[in-house]
Amino acid sequence: MVLSMAVFSLALCFLHFAQKKDLQTSALSALGMAASNSGFIGYPIAALAIGAPAGLALALCMMIENVIIIPAALVIAETGLQAGLPARVILRSSAVRLIKSPIILAILAGTAISAFGIVLPSPIFKTVDMLALASAPVALFVIGGTLVGFKIEGLRAEVAQIVLGKLAIHPVAVLMAFTIFAKVDPDLKSVAIIMASVPMLSVYPILGQRYGMDEVCAAALMVSTAISVFTISAMIWLVKANVLQSIAG
After folding, report:
1. Rounded to whole angstroms, how far apart are CA atoms 46 and 31?
2. What's the CA gap between 84 and 59, in Å, rounded?
3. Which of 1-5, 59-63, 110-114, 145-149 has the least mean pLDDT?
4. The pTM is what?
5. How far are the Cα atoms of 33, 59, 122, 184 from residue 119, in angstroms, in the given order?
6. Average pLDDT, whole number, for the chain?
7. On the CB side of 68, how many CA atoms lie within 13 Å of its CA?
8. CA triple 201-203-206, angle to 5 deg
9. Which of helix, strand or coil describes residue 186?
10. Which residues contact 42 (CB under 8 A, 6 or more apart)?
11. Three-class SS of residue 200?
């Protein structure tokens, strides 16, 4: 799961320094390549294919993605959005915007509740649970609305790059890392590779909206979700055939 941070960092550097893209575009594209939809897609599939280790992998993925990768991408994107201003102004303005961001506030609140073992009262818990169940349909509604009238001309390369990074480079990087660090439970290796091979998180277009990348993010999510039917199936077949275990360890 720490490998996702490495994929994010390398993708960010490549996009910004090699392809000369602005920071906000680089950060959001790198986020799409490195942050998986661990909760709604990765965990259910890994739990069916592997079993109990999927729960541990989910906890690690959620911690890395929600506490490190998503905030880092938003901080970098905010910095890029205000490029040209004095560093002091950028830091102050970015901090204020991020503190007011509902996503950052939700991550901080969830982390605090989990860390201190706070048990929410039943009415509040039921409300939060209802909102959690509604999050996926709402995200799909936003994606559908964003894609209405969307013309992909001129953006094919950008969308293809994000999809390739998420469905190919991310899982391959995880697999290659496991060939170096072999002393990991084989089942956990398989779960990690499956988690890395699923599409990006469902709120990806919502995160990209502020930075003018909502259409690109929505298109990348839609394409990667369609293609992942085949890539995830291939990963499950490799797991069942014990191919991944033999390669990675």
Report:
1. 22
2. 39
3. 145-149
4. 0.86
5. 34, 18, 9, 33
6. 84
7. 17
8. 140
9. helix
10. 36, 57, 58, 61, 194, 195, 198
11. strand
Q: Would you list the DSSP string of 10-53?
A: HHHHIIIIIS---HHHHHHHHHHHH-B-IIIIIHHHHHHHT-TH
Candidates 208, 197, 191; CA nearest to 165 is: 197
Query: What backbone phi and psi angles, to 5 degrees, belong to 139?
Result: -60, -40
**Six token digits for residue 144:** 């559908």
Count of CB atoms situated within 10 Å of the CB of 179: 11
- Residue 204 has, within 13 A of its CA and on its CB side, a CA count of 34
Q: How confident is the model at residue 227 (pLDDT cuts 50, 70, 90)?
A: very high
How crowded is residue 55: how many other Cβ atoms within 10 Å of its Cβ? 13
pLDDT value for 18: 94
Residue among 162, 152, 222 at smallest CA distance from 26: 162
CA distance 190 to 77: 32
Listed residue (116, 105, 15, 9) closest to 66, CA to CA: 105
Q: How far apart are CA 240 and CA 190, in angstroms?
A: 10
- Tokens 């209405």 sit at which residue? 148
Residue 14 has pLDDT above 90, yes or no: yes
237 falls in which pLDDT band (50, 70, 90)?
confident
Contact 83, 22 (CB under 8 A): yes
Q: What type of residue sits at position 52?
A: A
Residue extents of the structural domains in the chain: 2-248
Q: Which two tokens stand for residue 210?
A: 């502020």
**CATH class name, domain 2-248:** mainly alpha
